[in-house]
Amino acid sequence: LIANSSAEEIDTSDYSDFSWKDLCYAKNEIYARHGYIFKSTELQEYFDSQPWYKKNKKYTQNPTLSDVELKNVETLRQAELDAGNGSLYPLDGKDQN
What we know:
- The chain has 97 residues and is mainly alpha-helical.
- Helices cover 39% and strands 0% of the residues.
- The chain has helices spanning 20-32, 41-48, 67-83.
- Helix 1 packs antiparallel against helix 3.
């Protein structure tokens, strides 16, 4: 969804036309690039459908993100909260990541 979100700090122009759901998926895409295995069935099914996604069983407990990735996760999380009037995008009743 945002190709450079693991390497460069993003700004609103990168996601200004995203839906609430897109913001959630873009945020979790950062984790998915590391092979994170999601608790959310919805997210896991989405990322399983991506040809670049490869599960990494070692990256499930405490994912380590770079400073850029951490900043981008927080930026997208805040945009997601703003889009949802203070709520994160609802998935299937489980944690998003």
